[in-house]
Specification:
Length: 256
């Protein structure tokens, strides 16, 4: 009986070891594919964008990408995993000489974001999109009550997103939208029409809920104090040391 137990234990240990090795191999292979499959100016793969700037990177795996000759990506853009960026209604169209989708420098498109440019979409410098943002220049029409909506010819209108904007998770930007500078779009908001500079919009349809003016500041006033900026000359090592000290003080306070 002890011999059988030892044999069973050995088989269990061997199975566990194999699973651990397989797990490590799978994760190592996936990390390698993420690195090798990323799209940059130096490693464009099959994609031939109208322009792709220095330091710009499309993470692997990419989402649907077509019409790339009419897509221009600025410098230092970050395109997350499974992000769809398209120009034109379908692949293989001749869209003329002008770009259809233009991303400025430093644009970030979060994971699962979709940018569908059937007519021109412009996203300004340093605009950040959370996960699952949807930006489109085309929408379904439903003029004919007897025809299925999906079979009716869609309507298109250019979209312009100014520099420095923040689009929260799940935000939707509809055709014809024009966002000014440093606009905040709340998570899940549905935006159409024009939004002025330095505004916060929320809801579906989105409405202005806060705005900054040079003479009055933010109205309604902000409910939380502004973050304290990091002083000049502070190193990352010093910041980590402060964070560790704060954690130790909090743990000590909890044990008292």
């Amino acid at each position: 009986m002890p011999k059988n137990q030892n044999t069973f234990s050995s088989l269990t240990a061997l199975t566990t070891l194999r699973r651990r090795l397989a797990n490590r191999a799978v994760h190592a292979a996936w990390r390698w594919m993420q690195q090798a499959g990323a799209i940059t100016a130096q490693t464009p793969g099959r994609l031939r964008f109208g322009a792709i700037g220095h330091g710009t990177r499309l993470a692997f795996p990419q989402g649907t990408v077509f019409g790339e000759p009419w897509i221009r990506l600025g410098d230092h853009c970050i395109i997350g995993e499974q992000v769809t960026i398209t120009a034109g209604m379908m692949p293989g169209l001749d869209l003329g000489t002008e770009p259809v989708l233009v991303l400025g420098n430093g644009v970030v498109l979060g994971r699962d974001t979709h940018v569908i440019a059937d007519t021109r979409i412009t996203i300004g410098d340093d605009t950040f999109c959370g996960p699952g943002v949807y930006i489109t220049s085309t929408n379904h029409s439903y003029d004919d009550p007897h025809e299925p909506v999906g079979k009716q010819w869609p309507r298109s209108a250019p979209v312009e997103i100014g520099p420095g904007c923040w689009l929260g998770t799940g935000a939707v930007i509809l055709p014809g939208a024009r966002l000014g500078r440093n606009v905040v779009v709340a998570a899940g908001a549905v935006v159409r029409g024009e939004v002025p500079d330095h505004a916060v919009v929320a809801g579906a349809p989105a409405r202005i809920v806060r705005r900054w003016q040079p003479d009055t500041g933010w109205q309604p006033p902000l409910r939380t104090p502004a973050p304290v900026p990091i002083p000049d000359g502070v190193t990352p090592e010093q910041l980590r040391a402060v964070a560790l000290l704060t954690e130790a003080e909090e743990r000590a306070a909890q044990t008292r």
